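Appendix B. Chain record.
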Amino acid sequence: MKRQNSSKRPPLESMVCFSVYSAGLAFNRLYRGLLKGFGLTYPQFLVLVCLQHRDGQKVSELGEALFLESNTLTPLLQRLEASQLIKRQRSDVDERVVHVSLTTSGNKLIKNIGCVPPQVLEATQMKLGEIAALTAKLHLLSGSLREHAKA
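Structure tokens predicted for this chain:
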């Protein structure tokens, strides 16, 4: 005998993990269209935003901020460097350490795009306060999940 689900919503829609996943996919699609004219992918855009906030970061710091492993981050940085948007430089003190900085072109580009293009804000159909509250809750959620995953 099949068990009847009393909810009319499909099971995936009631799962918070799926809601976060599908929102992430939707953001990626939206940004893909917005960033195409700038010749950037969404992950490349995120690197530029991180460097705009604090230039000269170590590759390891960028990886931590973006939750990317070095085998994913390195090719991403290589493409940004080939586009002359960033420069990588080995530390004089420890050659294993590589610092990443925006070039003049990279800095100009990220300033032109902005951290949150108005089209993204419009697409959410939310007010700034609502987005800030949601962002704060999502940070708490992701932090808790990462801590639990470490255990």
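Further analysis of this model is presented in Appendix C.
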